[in-house]
Each structure stands twice: as C-alpha cells, then as structure tokens.
Design goal:
single chain, 338 residues, alpha+beta, Phosphorylase Kinase, domain 1, Transferase(Phosphotransferase), domain 1, five-stranded antiparallel beta sheet, two-stranded antiparallel ribbon, 12 helices, 12% strand
C-alpha cells in the first residue's frame, strides 16, 4: 500500500477505531513513505511552540496532514484547537475549530484540502480557464521562475497551481462577503486550508438544503434570496461552478452558500454560461420540489443577459463532464447547435 492509498483510507481507519498497535504495523510497511514534519501535537508529549492540543482524535495519517495544514493558523492565534471533523469531501474536509483571539466568534470552520495528487476533481482545467494564477498573498504571480514552473507543469509548478486553487477560493469569499453575499466570512488562508465562519452550533453543523424539507412560503423566501446571490455573484464577475442544494446551508431561517473553488469568471471563461446554467438548474430543482414553479433555463438566460453577457458557447459544453448524464442531458440541445 502506497501513501496515496494510505491517505485515502484514513477516514475508514477512524471508523474502525484501530488501536495504536494497529497503526504502528501499518506505518512499518511503508517506512519510506512517512510524511515529514517539524512538530507533533501536544498529546504526543512534544514541547514545541508549534504544537497543537488536538481534541479531535485523528488517525495517524490524517493527524500529520492536519498538523502540516493548520499549524500556521494555530501559531498566529487564529485557532486554539480542532474539535471534530464535520464534513468529508472529494476535495477537502471541514473541521470544527475553537477560535483563537484573532477571531471574533467562539467557533470557526477550517476547510483543509486534500493533497493535490489525491484530489478527485475531473477536468479542472475547464474551471481554471480565464483565471490568473495567484501567489500565497492573493496577488498575480510575478516571479519569472514561478510563472515558468507553472507553464512547464513542473512539480514545483503544480504545487503553485494547487496553492493558487485554494487562494482563489479565499479571495472569492473575501470579495463576496464584502459585497454582502450570503457566504461564510473568510478569516485566513494557510498553505493548505481556509479558516472561515462556522455555520451551526456546537451540537451540529448547519444542514444543507438537500437534507431538509421546507414549507412553500419559506422555500419561496429562500429561493428569492438565492436569486439575489446569483445576481450579486454575476455583478462581481463570479459564477459558483458547483451550486446546488448540497452547497447551500440552512440555519435559523437563513442560507449560506459554500464551496467556491470551482468559481469561474463569466467574461473570460468560454464555458461560463453553460456552467452558470447548470448552477441555476440544479439549484432550482430544490425549489421546484418545494412547490415553486420556475423555468430554470429561462431564468438562467435572463439573469445572464441582464448583465449584458453573451450566452453563445464557444466550445462544446458537454466536455465539462462527459461521465455525468445530467450534464449530457442538460447541454444536449446546445451541443447540437455547435
């Protein structure tokens, strides 16, 4: 079993609750594959100033990855503890953290990305089109060596691209939060994680809309609020890229849109309208189930043209995900017109 397989099993290891001896045997089979790091957690009797007193009992492989991803947030007083994992995903996992003095609220959410080699996002070049690569400070890459490494797709260049992918989500959250959109407040970005507002309470995180059923009157209010957010994102040159009831949280009568790594720019991505149309249709599916009548395709076109944008595709939109039957069905009509 290699490191990739080992990392992919850490969630299962947690579920099995393997003992320390079991973990030791697993590690010894891969002595050359251990992740290197300069500090360990306090509960391993380390006195390093970078140690994090972790309440969350992670499996060994996950623990090392958390340290590498969150130590900087701990050192700079953004967080003081990791309490538990609240969500696991194909690209990242979200952890409930106890906030440090740098954060106004008691709890915060840390979105920790999987290693670049283990991410499971297909055809991410579709979403990268039209983006500029960003450095750790959210600024356009300016060093010739960095730009050249990205262009040549060297190992270092791929690391920069991975970092840019994360920073791009953080910058997008900053822009939308300041514009008044219903998104989590972003606090800080580290080498592999974003710290943001936690939506929910200590007992449980906010559920996604897909997990709850609402009355038609309340669903209509939230539908109108979702439209407001879609319009607001377009005004700030953003298309979510993966919006649906699964990425909209519901808490105390309000909604929060999450997961923005796939955001695209409507004026510089040739597939932007098809991506936006997919967002609108998938989001409206929930509203329709709650009794709201809406022509999602017409709505998408009206919102798009209302911003003075062209809906004419320049490439076959079915290429967005050839393995997704919903995508093929959604864009079949457009594809025939190409």
């Amino acid at each position: 079993m290699n490191l990739k397989q080992a990392y992919q099993t850490f969630e299962e290891l947690d579920d099995l609750d393997l003992d320390e001896k079991g973990h030791e045997r697993f590690l010894r089979r891969n002595p050359k594959k251990k992740l290197k790091h300069d500090a360990v957690f306090v509960h391993k009797q380390d006195d390093s100033h970078t140690s994090l007193n972790l309440t969350y009992k992670a499996a060994r492989f996950e623990e090392v990855w958390l340290l590498d991803s969150l130590a900087g947030l701990y050192e700079h007083a953004w967080i003081t503890d990791v309490l538990r994992k609240v969500k696991g995903g194909k690209e990242a996992s979200v952890y409930l953290c106890r906030s440090g003095p740098a954060v106004e609220t008691e709890l915060a959410a840390a979105k920790v990305y999987r290693p670049r080699s283990l991410r499971n996002l297909k055809q991410d070049h579709i979403y990268r089109e039209g983006r500029i690569d960003l450095d750790a400070d959210g600024k356009k890459l300016h060093k010739d060596a960095d730009v050249g490494a990205v262009a040549k797709r060297t190992a270092y260049g791929e690391q920069i691209r991975h970092q840019s992918w994360i920073v791009y989500e953080f910058v997008t959250l900053q822009t939308l939060y300041e514009a008044g959109a219903d998104v989590p407040r972003p606090y800080e970005v580290s080498n592999n994680a974003i710290l943001m507002d936690y939506i929910g309470d200590y007992a449980a995180p906010a559920p996604a809309l897909s997990e709850i059923s609402l009355g038609t009157s309340e669903a209509r209010v939230l539908y109108e609020r979702t439209l407001h957010n879609l319009e607001l994102m377009l005004r700030h040159n953003c298309v979510h890229g993966d919006l649906s009831a699964y990425n909209i949280l519901y808490w105390e009568g309000d909604i929060t849109l999450i997961d923005f790594p796939q955001v695209v720019a409507p004026d510089s991505n040739r597939n932007a309208f098809q991506i936006f149309e997919r967002d609108v249709i998938r989001t409206c599916e929930y509203s329709q189930k709650m009794g709201i009548r809406v022509d999602a395709q017409k709505l998408a076109t009206d919102l798009w043209k209302g911003r003075g944008l062209s809906a004419a595709p320049e490439v076959d939109p079915r290429h967005l995900d050839a393995e997704d039957p919903k995508d093929r069905q959604l864009w079949q009509q457009v594809g025939r017109a190409l």
